[in-house]
Amino acid sequence: MSPAEVLEFAKKNGVKLVDFKFVDLLGQWQHTTMPIHKLKEETFAEGFNFDGSSIRGWKAIHESDMTCVPDAATAVIDPFVKEPTLSLIVDIVDAITHQPYARDPRQIAHKAEQYLKQTAIGDAAYFGPEPEFFIFDEVRFGEAPNTSFYKVDSKEGRWNTAKEEEGGNLGYKPDYKRGYFPAPPIDSQVDIRADMALTLEKIGITVEVFHHEVATAGQAELSMIFGPLVTMADRTMWYKHVVKNVARKWGKTATFMAKPIFGDNGSGMHCHQSLWKGAKNLFVGDKYAGLSETALYYIGGLIKHAPALLAITNPGLNSYRRLVPGFEAPVNLAYSSRNRSAAIRVPVATSPKAKRLEFRCPDPTTNPYLAFAAMLMAGLDGIQNKIKPGDPMDKDIYELPPEELRDIPKAPGSLDEALAALKKDHAFLLKGDVFSKEVVDTWIWWKEECEIKPSRLRPTAFEFAQYFDA
Ligand SMILES: [Mg+2]
Q: End of a domain among 101, 134, 165?
């Protein structure tokens, strides 16, 4: 839609309000709302100002004026506001220079797309993310100097088979690691997922399939059809927004935490990706699994930079509780055409258009704009430097004898390790000024000062179990 068409669309739908959304550095949607009469055709060129000083990871208070420029192509009717409301995603520019704000993740994603074109390698990067999540009935957590606890619960939780429930416990709770995917009544959430899927379709996001996931207690996944990098990052934000708000409507609560439940599968966000030039899929060729040499070099780049990349694609302390052996999480940095235990899988493609590779490490706590941009930059670095990915790994990696397993590089075991890798290895992100050094430094600073260091000060329940009776 053009700006004029957006205004026409608003009029036709009886819109009273306009809601502007943007993502902060860590990946949380922020928003602000105005009466629709404030939105003019000029707003799409000039934008409007706001105070960016209280947004996490952004401006200092003395330089806090920022400008939001709405992207007309993102116009939809917001499905969650009572009064008819137009929703627009905005880009952030400096209020004085009107230059793209270097810490706006969406601007970084735009720059990654532009850089791809500049390299002349291709003109579009397509992404197909698969965010997984849990739908719980209750979550409680809290901390004080003398306590720290969390508790999640779900009527579906296997731990509730012995519970006395109102009206009698009827059983049929998915067993641990067996939620994929018995029919109802074991799966009790098909209507909720259907509501999520149809809400996404209502705002123009095509859903391919949806189902219960492996873990007990309401783990789920909806998959969206793939699209260009920035578009798919926008859609990932909408996906999370729809999942959380539809769950709330049903009296439930959804989380994209990577590992909310000990001892069962965590939630990943496998990312399918391919590069295109015009109508040509650059990943189609006559090498391994029908891939091109370009695709193999892209894999080489992903594997080489994976330890640093994970500081962005798996950005939390909790992310690394998922990346452990035994829960289908890809801890081994290898590639394979069928094997889901490899970090990179080459799915069987039904047509050349569908040829792609799937990076299985990321989890849905990541900021999709930064994650997709960083993966693209790693892959492009692989192509530019002809980085060979080594031999494919077509055995089940989890069943390999230790001496063979030893030679396969491993994903970082903690956020500290990933950040240490990012400190050493980030030149590939800075090419074409896609990521600035300042953004990388701010990211590392935030993760160390606001997440890692505070976590080190706090005793945990597990420590009491281990040491109280010492
Ligand atoms: Mg899945």
A: 101
Query: pLDDT at position 81, please?
Result: 96
Please indicate, yes or no, whether residues 168 and 58 belong to a single structural domain of this protein: no
In the residue annotation, 98 being an active-site residue is answered as: no
| Model confidence pLDDT, tens digit, residues 404-422 | 778 888 899 999 999 999 9
Q: How far is it, in rounded angstroms, from Cα 267 to Cα 453?
A: 25
Predicted structure pTM score: 0.96
Which residues fall within 8 angstroms of residue 459, CB to CB, at 6 or more apart?
148
Distance from C-alpha of 169 to C-alpha of 155, rounded to nearest angstrom: 10
The answer to whether the CB of 230 falls within 8 A of the CB of 113 is yes
Question: Which residue type sits at 227?
Answer: G
* Single-letter amino acid, residue 85: T
| Contact assessment for residue 407 and residue 397, using Cβ atoms and an 8 Å cutoff | no
- Asked about 438 being catalytic, the answer comes back as no
Instruction: Kindly name the residue from 91, 130, 156, 425 that is annotated as catalytic.
Output: 130
Residue 10's CATH number: 3.10.20.70
Take residue 266 and report the two structure tokens written for it. Answer: 């965590």
**Residue 458 appears among annotated catalytic residues:** no
